[in-house]
Design a protein that fits this description.
Layout: H1 2-34, H2 39-42, E1 52-54, E2 56-59, E3 62-65, E4 67-71, E5 74-91, E6 108-111, E7 116-125, E8 131-141, E9 144-161, E10 168-171, E11 180-182, H3 187-228, H4 234-243, H5 249-262, H6 280-291, H7 295-303, H8 308-319, H9 321-337, H10 340-345, H11 356-366, H12 371-391, H13 393-403
Antiparallel strand pairs: 1-11, 2-3, 4-5, 5-6, 5-9, 7-8, 8-9, 9-10
Helix pairs in contact: 3-6, 3-9, 3-11, 3-12, 9-12, 9-13, 11-12
Amino acid sequence: MTKLRFYLGRLLAYALLIGFAVFMLFPFIYMMSTSLKNSNDVFRVPPQLFPLSPVQREVNGTLKDVYSFEIDGRVREMVQTGESRNFGFFTTPDRINLNNTRNSNIIAQVPIDEALKTDKTITLTRADGKEARFDVYEVTLDGKTEQLLLAYRSGLAEFVAIDDETVKLYAVARTAPKQEFIDFQWGNYNAVLNLQLDRALVNTTLVTLLVVVGQLVTSILGGYAFSRVEFRGRDTLFLVYLGSIMIPFVVLIIPMYRLMVLLEWQNRIVSLIVPWIFTAYGTFLMRQFFIAIPKEIEEAALLDGCSRFRVLWGIFVPLSTPAIATLAIFSFLYAWNSFLWPLLIIGEGNVTNHVLTLSLIRLSNSFADQPNMVLTGAAIAILPPVIVFVLAQKYFIEGVASSGLKG
């Protein structure tokens, strides 16, 4: 009994975790699915998760969508002829829905020109006290003529069987059962990349890689200096440097922009790289990790004649892989998703030096009526960080667990 409760508890826990995981991943799944749809498929009601395209057949030299209708117990494949006919939908006074006549219990669906209009009208009173007047028609059903109320009229499209043109019927084309198959529109990605998003992707990759490498180098050197090299005012200087984290970015925008203008770096990619290769957080992270490394290892290496530079790159760096991976992920995500600074220093007009975040704004403005194209651009921007995080997840968790708890 105890084991049964244990396994039931585990099963319930896993079910809840899977449910929450699906709930949290659903926006990402829907984005990826929509990025592989065409424009018409996006606005389908009810919405579909997978992209669908209509099955088509060549009829008289023209490709037409195929529909499935059951006629006399047999499912027939049919196509539209392009013709339509006006039908009347008839019923009796006790079966009509006064609030919405299209929801009435219809007795007969007859071409309006085959029904004979009489001079009679029937007035019915709604629940709110308002009156509704209906025309009376003579309709022939199974050889018998009956007088019925005209509930409403509707134009119906004509369908014909592919294998027998004598088999015809009329239906609403919008709600007719269309044959469809799952069809991923991979061409959306090529179309979006051709809208200068490929240049933005290259720029973003270049900026991100250089920022990540720059932050890793400066943080490793600074972390080693503040943790192992003895010099006057080291701790005070470190506290001042660490305190710069508390300065909001909005306070730095104007002086940084004026500095870029002074250096004539505005509207240039270099302005997205150089100001961000120094990070107090990265220096703090590496310092905390280096402090945890036993001093005996460093002292033994120095006694063997190793220089500090060799000790750093030969001993400390290999032992600090989790912390370096953690810093690389944080730096990558920040540089890849940066928006405000590129918007200020590059601007929307300089398309050549755009990064992805800026190009996505232009894409959303140009394709506001095509969400599939906008979400395709979003997918292109999101997939690289997701892949990087998944591949480096092991080191990320190790880095947080170790460097974040030791001081």
